Amino acid sequence: MTWDPLQREILEALGHTVYRATAPAPAALPDDALLHALLRAAGRDADAADAAALCRQWMPTARLRDPAAKRALWPRLRALRASTPSR
Questions:
Q1: How big is the chain by its Cα radius of gyration, in Å?
Q2: 55-87: per-residue pLDDT in tens?
Q3: pLDDT tens digit string along 13-48?
Q4: What is the pLDDT, as a whole number, of residue 84?
Q5: What is the DSSP string of 2-43?
Q6: 87: which DSSP letter?
Q7: Residue 3 — pLDDT band, cuts 50, 70, 90?
Q8: Distance CA 39, CA 41 (A)
């Protein structure tokens, strides 16, 4: 059985050993322009190793259309950008 990255993370958090026969496939990100803009603002792109994890941490993009939600997210994005090694 193949598990997606979120399922593997949850199973490991529950203490289960997840065996992998092959390398896990990268998680597919939704084709959402706002989500990709947020990744760019965080200094990442869709191919970044932590892109899928970051997208799961952020609230749904439909809620990010609210100005207050965007303002609340900016400090986190700036911190992520600052922690990104120079390319």
A1: 15
A2: 888 878 888 778 898 888 889 888 988 887 655
A3: 999 888 776 655 556 788 888 888 889 888 888 888
A4: 75
A5: ---HHHHHHHHHTT-----SSPPPPPPPP--HHHHHHHHHTT
A6: -
A7: confident
A8: 5
Q: How many Cα atoms are found within 13 Å in the side-chain-facing hemisphere of 69? A: 10
72 vs 22: CA distance, rounded Å: 39
Which DSSP helix (H) or strand (E) runs through 53? helix 51-57
Task: Report the half-sphere exposure of 9 (CA within 13 A, side-chain side).
Answer: 7
String of DSSP letters for 54-85: HHHHSPPTTGGGSHHHHHHHHHHHHHHHHHSP
Helical pair 67-83 and 33-41, crossing angle rounded to 10 deg? 40
Q: pLDDT at position 4, please?
A: 82
Residue 6's Cβ-side half-sphere holds a number of Cα atoms within 13 Å equal to: 10
